[in-house]
Every structure is written in structure tokens, then in C-alpha cells.
Amino acid sequence: MSRTRINDRLSEFDERVVAAAEADLDRLLSLEPSPEFAAKVLARISAEPTGRGRRMAWVGLSIASAAALIIAFTLRSDPAESDRAQSFARPAQQDVVLSIAPSDRRDTVSTAITAPKRAHLAPRRPVRIAEPVVLIDRSLADAIHRLAVSTRNMTLDAGVPDGRLQSASESPTSSVVVEPLTVPELVLKPADQNGGRSGTRLVSNTRSDQ
Amino acid sequence: MNEWAGGFSGTLVNPDDVLEREFEDRLRESTTLAFRVAYGVLRNRQDAEDVAQEAFAKAHRNFTQLRDRGRFRAWLVRMTWRLAIDRWRSDRRRTIREHSVEMPAVATTEDVAVARERSAHLYRAIDALPEKLRVVVVLAAIEGHDVREVARLLDVPEGTVKSRLFLARKGLAESLRCLAPESTTD
């Protein structure tokens, strides 16, 4: 036992106690591993991947990562490719449905709405249907409505040589009501005729002229 | 051409093979040391072999990173100690188990009970020491390492080992004093 012993400030009794403990510890730790221990260790080491295999695995992983990064960067940086990919991914164009509120159906006329030519390039956004705008007078609208109704009841008779429309109900004028045309009077002021000096009023009426 | 290549390849030495052979040499001369270090902490043969095996596997994985191959034993001892302490702590956390103390050389069966009792007290006293003092006591008890060898294994100055060894012996004396037969006389 070549161990260096330090016995500063330890009493003789403590020294004996510690010496006995160290002797016990020497004896307890003087065990040998099992005979197959070294073989087990070697088997475990050989079962693990070798250093070259680990290095090759790391190299392969690095190359694969670099290739994936390069491909991703190339796809991101090519604008034509990205446009093509975007056009392939564009969903089908939705039809614009124009509807009229039931309460306003008789009083309104829908306007023709044409879709913009490059609407497919615009980003998708919810379509907002505008309210139809009344562009003509109500009486005129009623007249158009009646004309449309009468036209719907007309059928094209093959026997008529000039191809004129004939009513399906055999009474061509039954649904058409002719209304007198009322034209408001035109009032000419005196100042327009003779400089406003005379107080005579010239009243012009189309019917009286006729 | 083939003959020339065959003769030339016979002279080539694979560096990995050289490394493997060197590690196997180190392993053969250090198996007992690693096992005893682990046993000094765990006091169970199977656990000690498992931990020593794990330490060797870890050393094999990192053997290329060891620049000074002459310090392999110290490197292995520190690795084994750390792994054994981790295993000991996890076992102690899981369950407080009774260690079956092996008695390698007991003359008679009458002495077995007394020897077991003394060993159990000794291990309890060692376990109660701080870890830095504990490793010094265990390493000094293994293979009769002196202060210089313990300092080399732990990679600390000799003076540090001396002071730690003194504190450890003092702590052991305080713990084991009551068990000594002459305790009533003092």
C-alpha cells in the first residue's frame, strides 16, 4: 500500500478507525469483473456504427440538406416558374350572379355588367353585387314591359311570307293598348321674339299648327 | 498491374484499424479499473458492469477526440465515475434499495454478519461524504493509488487531493467512531 497518508490533527483513535475503514474498503473493492466482461464490451463496441459510417452518414445528410435548400431557393427565385405555379393553382372563376330584390323587381332595370378582361389576374375577393339603378322613366318601363309580354305571346308563323310575328292567341292586338301620345306645350316667351318690348305671347302648339 | 496493386495494398494501413487496435489495448488494461470505480459507487456487480460497459462505449465513440492518449485511464475513470453517480442517484430516487454487500474473503460464517454490518456502516459513511471527497476516498482505495496517481486521475493538483483526502478521513472517523469497540474508553 503506497498510499500517502495524511494524519494531521487526527487522534490516534480516529487514525485507527480510519485505517480499519480503509482496509475494509480496499478489501471490498478488490473485486474482478466477470471473465466475459471484456468480450461483452468489445461486442457492444463492434455493434455500434463505426466512425467512418457515422462520418458518411453525416456527409450524406449534409449533401441532402444542401440539395434541398438549393432546390427550394431556385423555385422561389424564378418568377416565371412561380407565375406558372400560381396560374396552375388558380381556382375556377365564379359566375357573377345578378339578382334583384323582390320588392324592386318591377321598378328596376338591371344593367349589363361585363366582367373585366383581366379579372382572373386579380386576387380573389368576395363579389359584391351592386344595387340595380333605374335609368328610364316608369311609364316608359311599363311600356317596354307590355311590349315584352306581347312579344312573348307571338309565334313565328311559317305560313306568313314576310315572317311577321303573329299572336299565339289569334288576337294580335288584344294585349297591346295604344295610348295617346301627350306632348307638353311649348311656351315661347316674348323676349325671345321681339326683344321683350311687346307683351304678346306666342303660343305654339303642335296640334294647332297642324 | 494487379500484382503491383495487390502488393501495394498489403502495405497500406487503414487509420481506423490502427485506432481500433489502440483502443482495444487500452480497454484490456483498464477494464478492472473502470469496473472497480463503478462498483465503489454502486456496490452491485451487475450494475457496475453495465456502467463500465457504457463508459467504454462512450470512450470508444469519443476516442478520436482524446489528444493525449496517455491520459486515457484518467479520462475513463472520470467518465465512469460520472455515469456511476448518475445511475446511483437515479436508483436512489427510484427506490431506497438495500445493497447486498459482497464479502469476497470471509473466513467463517460467524464473521459474515459482523463483516456485513461493518461494510454497511462504512458505505453509509462514504455515501454521506460530499462527492469531491468521496471520489478521492474510493480512488485511493482502488489498486492502492497514492496522492499523485489520484491527482492524475482527477486532473487536479496534488495539494488539492491531500486536503480532500484529509477532510474525507476526518469525516469517516466522525461517522465510524461510534462503531469502534474502543469508543467507550475515549
Structure, explained:
The complex is a heterodimer of chains A (210) and B (186). Chain A is mostly helical and 210 residues long. Helices cover 42% and strands 6% of the residues of chain A. Chain A has helices spanning 12-28, 37-47, 51-77, 79-88, 138-152, 190-194, 206-209; strands at residues 154-156, 165-167, 186-188, 202-204. In chain A, the strands form 2 sheets. Chain A has a two-stranded antiparallel ribbon with strand order 1-2. In chain A, strands 3-4 form a two-stranded antiparallel sheet. In chain A, strand 1 and strand 2 form a beta hairpin. The longest helix of chain A has 27 residues, at 51-77. The radius of gyration of chain A is 53 Å and the shape is rod-shaped. Chain A starts with 11 loop residues before the first helix and ends with a helix. Residues 1-5, 108-112 and 198-210 of chain A have low confidence and may be disordered. In chain B, 72% of the residues lie in helices and 0% in strands. Chains A and B meet through helix 1 and helix 2 of A and helix 2, helix 3, helix 5, helix 6 and helix 8 of B.
Structural class category of chain B? mainly alpha
User: Any idea what the radius of gyration of chain B is?
Assistant: 22 Å
Question: Order of strands across the widest beta sheet of chain A?
Answer: 1-2
Mean pLDDT of chain A: 68
Number of helices of chain B: 8
Low-confidence runs of at least 5 consecutive residues of chain A? 1-5, 108-112, 198-210
- Chain pair sharing the greatest interface: A-B, 40 and 54 residues
Give the SSE string of chain A: HHHHHEEEHEH
Task: Chart the SSEs and their pairings.
The complex is a heterodimer of chains A (210) and B (186).
Chain A: H1 12-28, H2 37-47, H3 51-77, H4 79-88, H5 138-152, E1 154-156, E2 165-167, E3 186-188, H6 190-194, E4 202-204, H7 206-209
Antiparallel strand pairs in A: 1-2, 3-4
Chain B: H1 2-11, H2 15-42, H3 45-61, H4 72-94, H5 110-127, H6 131-141, H7 147-154, H8 158-176
